């Protein structure tokens, strides 16, 4: 009878040990998953902030480099640089603006337009640009998207209507 108690006691100890190790591994996975998700939205915001900081200073060539491939197909670099500078600086009569980024929201399977492939996960971040122009002061609000392309986070604008 003494042998059975030791055997049962050893079994219970091993079972508790494995349950404890399993629980710790599960908590570690949850923690890493939470950190990775939080890190993704922070990276998306950082990329969009870098994009609009370049735009704000008139560095439209630098901001173009942060576009997703789908956006680069829509705008050639030289065309984008010329049109952005022309519209904002010449037509509106402003040298710069301020901007605010809203809270990122994860969205899935978005398309920039009907002819493009769906993107997996992307972060939708509203951007508000504050302008003081020769036509008065106004705000422009645009929903922007940031998606991972390879190892890099890239900026997109949506051109299709939501269905």
TrEMBL record:
InterPro entries: NTF2-like_dom_sf. This is Uncharacterized protein.
């Amino acid at each position: 009878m003494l042998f059975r108690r030791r055997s049962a006691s050893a079994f219970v100890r091993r079972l508790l040990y494995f349950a404890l190790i399993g629980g710790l591994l599960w908590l570690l996975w949850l923690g890493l998953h939470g950190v990775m998700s939080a890190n993704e939205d922070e990276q998306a915001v950082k990329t969009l902030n870098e994009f609009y900081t370049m735009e704000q200073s008139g560095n439209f060539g630098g901001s173009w480099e942060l576009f997703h491939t789908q956006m680069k197909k829509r705008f050639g670099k030289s065309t984008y640089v010329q049109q952005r500078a022309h519209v904002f600086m010449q037509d509106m009569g402003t040298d710069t603006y301020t901007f605010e980024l809203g809270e990122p929201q994860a969205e899935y399977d978005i398309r920039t337009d009907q002819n493009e492939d769906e993107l997996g996960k992307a972060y939708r971040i509203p951007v508000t640009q504050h302008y003081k122009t020769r036509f008065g002061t106004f705000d422009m609000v645009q929903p922007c998207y940031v998606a991972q392309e390879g190892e890099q986070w890239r900026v997109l604008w949506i051109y299709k209507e939501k269905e």
